Amino acid sequence: MDGHINKKHTVAVVGAGVAGLRCASLLMGKGYDVTVFEKSRGTGGRLASVRLGELSVDLGAPWIEPVSHDFRQWLMMQGPHLSLWRPNASDFSLNKVFVDRQVWVPVPRSSMITRHLLQNINFHPSVRVAVAWPDRDGVLLRDERAVALGHFDKVVIATPAPQAAPLLDAVQRYRQKAEAVVQKPCWVLLVSLDKRPEKLANIDVVEGEHKIFARIIRDSSKPQRDGEVWVLQANDAWSSDYVNLSPETVGQVLLAGFQEWLSQTLQPTAVRVHRWLYSEACVNDEHLSLWDAESGIGACGDWLVRGGLEGAWRSGSSLAEKIMDEHA
């Protein structure tokens, strides 16, 4: 497994989040011919960033807190793409400010980590893969219009469980695993303001118990960020109860809730609402990754192992090792 493979094996990775791109980059480094397909316009997954007016804002995981030595060492290798952040944090009572927290954030935006992983890999954004089926020529991928995307020796499914299930149809035991996973939704409101709210003059992060919110983050407090941008993440219960509301209505309710909590009327200069339909996965039966050598189809992602972003990274690493072990 230490050397490069003799023959260029082709691998398709479906999903350009941390798990998929970690797997892709490891395989690319060992000489595999890797192609990544992503339904969105760019990379990121849980580390996605979006535009809000003239600014870029982190939409998903607000930071990275490494637990294992291996993941921490890998983060340290990201060099200029990562920076330490020490946010002032509080709960929703705002009675006490905690200043001893240390987390890592990609710079100048979250998606820099996945963009760095993607370098030199064939990338096809805005392509929704709908079918992965093995035949005598390999594994055939088709998009949502049934257009053939090509045959590949191996296919890695690195999407949320509900999206992975139909792509794992050729390996029914894996499809059933994916179908059994519950992934919670999460509504997020991004708000750009003309000035910082008075009550949050010295606070960067608020999290804890609230009837609507799980966490409020001043994105502009992170290293190499500009503006006065706040990210409001609704809690699990609220997001689940109102998962089918229109984005416009959700934005109005979350902004009203923010103003009520602050006891202050705000004048947003820009707002953006996003629904993570498949946010945190409820993992009951852990598997680092899934690999079926007979079909050439496998899966990785944070729905297979606990640990959020670190779990996704571990899952992608695990699947790459299983694929490479076949050619050791």
From TrEMBL:
InterPro entries: Amino_oxidase (IPR002937), FAD/NAD-bd_sf (IPR036188). It is an enzyme of class 1 (oxidoreductase). Keywords: Oxidoreductase. Gene3D superfamilies: 3.90.660.10, FAD/NAD(P)-binding domain. It holds the Pfam family Amino_oxidase. Residues 130-323 form the Amine oxidase domain. Its EC number is 1.3.8.2. The keyword Oxidoreductase applies. GO terms for molecular function: 4,4'-diapophytoene desaturase (4,4'-diaponeurosporene-forming). This is Dehydrosqualene desaturase.
